[in-house]
Design brief:
Blueprint lengths: L2 H10 L4 H14 L3 H11 L34
Helix pairs in contact: 1-2, 2-3
């Protein structure tokens, strides 16, 4: 990821210009590490930008199996 990519991603997520400038300077000094940038965003009051919640193993554990019912009515002789 380049600094231009970082700037673009921050602009897409509605980060203010002064905060983008701060994060770009921070990244120039410390390197571009998405975890560190997300931590800095949280400190500034923004949501995480680079955290991918879908990579977590237990992301969809709360979904249960769904039993499908036939969509046509069936009549049985009893």
């Amino acid at each position: 990821m380049t600094l231009e990519d970082l700037q673009f991603a921050l602009e897409l997520n509605c980060v203010m210009t002064k905060d983008i400038d701060y994060l770009l300077e921070y990244s120039k000094k410390n390197g571009i590490h998405t975890e560190d940038i997300d931590t800095q965003l949280l400190k500034l009051g923004y949501d995480k930008v680079f955290d991918n919640q879908y990579e977590e193993d237990n992301y969809d554990d709360y979904f249960n199996n769904i039993q499908k019912f036939p969509n046509k009515a069936r009549f049985y002789d009893e």
